[in-house]
Amino acid sequence: MHESMARVVMASGDHCLVADSDGSLNRCRPRRRRDPRPVCGDRVQWSADAPDGWIDAIEPRRNLIERGDFRGRPRGLAANVDRMVLVIAPEPAPDALLVDRYIVLGKALDIPLLLWCHKQDLASAAGSMPMQAIRQRCEDMAIPIMTGSTHDPDALTRLEAATGGETLILVGQSGVGKSSITQALVPTASLRIGQISASSGQGRHTTSETTLFDRPDGGALIDSPGVRTLRLDHLNPSAVDAAYPVIAEATRHCRFNDCRHGTEPDCGIREGIAAGCIDPEALKRWQRLREETAR
Ligand SMILES: Nc1nc2c(ncn2[C@@H]2O[C@H](COP(=O)(O)OP(=O)(O)OP(=O)(O)O)[C@@H](O)[C@H]2O)c(=O)[nH]1
Ligand SMILES: [Zn+2]
Fold first, then answer.
1. How many Cα atoms sit within 13 Å of 204 on the Cβ side?
2. HSE of 146 in the Cβ direction (CA atoms, 13 Å)?
3. What's the CATH number where 244 sits?
4. Which of 20, 116, 157, 239 could form a disulfide with 108 if both were Cys (CB 3.0 to 4.6 A apart)?
5. CATH number of domain containing 166
6. Each residue of 233-289: pLDDT tens digit?
């Protein structure tokens, strides 16, 4: 039996598509029912068979991005990612909590983030309060920020240069422009989507799955569908704290270890709010994510 190495370009339910070194696609399934499910970006050993090939082994992952579904159960999204590109745009208006969820996820997995502010042609809206607040949030976290649009080739070239050779994952709300960015950075993306749909036998449905494309510069780009829920129940509260350093530090100044930051005396959080160094909206998001991860 011939066994070879390949990269998973799409995983869906019971099957996945792997790309050989020459780019050809093969539909495969895990060999045994209880085998771990491959995810987009995995490197695997597989053997050809009909109608589907078999995944024999998944190479050790450098990282695994999981997101919690609506019940909080973690679902593998992508593996072996070098950078998470968080895409926001004036439209649809950014969701600060969702942005924070991605920041927590990136920090927890130690995957560098980049904030890409898209649709700059809608310029007047680009300076809107929600956009500004998120830019500030990322600046405070030392997350690099870049701006651009699908109609600005120079900006896209800058993104390409800043991330050369890396495996990127584009994440963000539905409609912010992730697929448009993919088309711009990977000129063969449409062709590839056609091949993927044909090979998976799922027709158009496939385009709604997380998909990996090879970039012309040797890196790769993973386009993930926009999500409404990105629960973080599978992470620890300390992962949340890492994304809110000022708030986490302030809690160390509370007199009581179990301070609820309400009416307790000597509360570091209330002092931080009074001093203007804690944003009450950010505090609400921190509390919400702490609760989610504390269960
Ligand atoms: N004004 C403007 N519109 C853009 C730009 N880039 C993309 N769009 C439009 O935004 C809409 C959504 O773009 P997509 O690329 O499909 O967004 P997406 O993030 O992939 O959305 P999902 O696949 O649902 O997650 C489309 O109508 C695009 O034409 C841009 O730079 N400027
Ligand atoms: Zn307190």
1. 0
2. 19
3. 1.10.40.50
4. 239
5. 3.40.50.300
6. 999 999 999 999 999 999 999 999 999 999 999 999 999 999 999 999 999 999 999
Confirm if 144 and 56 have CB atoms less than 8 A apart.
Answer: no
* Ligand 1 surroundings by CB, under 6 angstroms: 118-119, 121-122, 149-151, 174-180, 225-226
pLDDT (tens digit per residue) in 94-152? 999 999 999 999 999 999 999 999 999 997 766 778 899 999 999 999 999 999 999 99
Same domain, 25 and 68: no
Per the CB < 8 A criterion, the answer to whether 221 and 183 are in contact is no
Residues 13, 76 within the same domain: no
Is 200 in the same domain as 93?
yes
Is this model's pTM higher than 0.90 or not? yes
Q: How far is the CA of 145 from the centre of ligand 1 (A)?
A: 19
104: nearest Cα among 270, 234, 273:
234
CB atoms within 10 A of CB 127: 10
Count of beta carbons in the 10 Å neighbourhood of residue 293: 22
- Same domain assignment for residues 273 and 197: no
Here the ipTM equals: 0.98
If you measure from the C-alpha of residue 97 to the centroid of ligand 2, how many angstroms do you get, rounded to a whole number? 22
Cα(109)–Cα(175) distance, rounded to whole angstroms? Answer: 26
